[in-house]
Amino acid sequence: MTGLLQWVQRKWIALPGVLLVALGAGLWGTDGLFRRGLALELPSATVVFWEHLILVVVTAPLLVRFYRNRPELAPRDLFALILVGVGASALATMLFTEAFSYGDPTTPLLLQKLQPVIAVLGAYVLLRERLLPRYGVYFLLAVGSAYLISFSDPTNVSVSQLEPALLAVGAASLWGLGTVVGRHLTAKIEPNQLTALRFAIGLPASAIILVWRGETSAASGVSSGDLGTLVGLALIPGLAAITVYYRGLSATPASLATLAELAFPLTAILIGWSVFDTVPSRTQWLGIAILASTIVVMARAARQHAEALGVVAPARASARPTPASERATS
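The structure corresponding to this sequence follows.
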């Protein structure tokens, strides 16, 4: 499996970072192919736990490599790792899934659009990324088209309950901050290894959630059929998506990456149409066209410089310091 990750890295390394982020987010959109059936068979905490367990087993060689050649990490880096693994990987997924359990899909889908706003604010405060006026054009096009995609009737949308709203805002906040601190960590940790660390740190968090929700018996009684679906869920919208995503994020300012991540609903709605016969409305088709065009334009402009898209990112220090094992022998 690590050989597959290296092949992906060699094959796509020449692509613009913005496009890689969009491709990774697009793979997240395949989630519905697997999670939709699992949601009818297994509790949500069980699905999240098994997903992380499978991913830790698959990426174990990368974890060993990280341990042997681990870079020197400051306390803020360790906190960022915890936020990515516990917050963005395990807890945010649970919060978002729980928001849907109230029977109102509109509220979590609407408030999830706060994620780019939170990521942009976090990038400004934590990464000191500065935005130029032209960035606003891309922001409005990307977020506006994602809004059109999310709802068949964009004129009839409202937040109906407080609890699912708070859960959705919590998930959006964790995912938005995950983009920011993930960008910070790619300066010190190889993207493939960061992928493995995200899942390894998320595993104990998902186990705690499993115990807290009293779903341990369900987790131990997973059928062979469900296990196969869980493997697919872990490898495609999980491992493949995050691997490509972090490769792109290492070369993309967080303020741009959060817009490219909106490729997720683009893929999701196209899969819903082609696989589940959910026909998009006219406004959703309009959103698809605008978002796809915006991502293509961003990818082309990003080949020049991030400033062409309205983002001025400070120069980053030499990406990955000398590993601890090498310093010890020098």
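The first strand starts at residue 130 and ends at 131.
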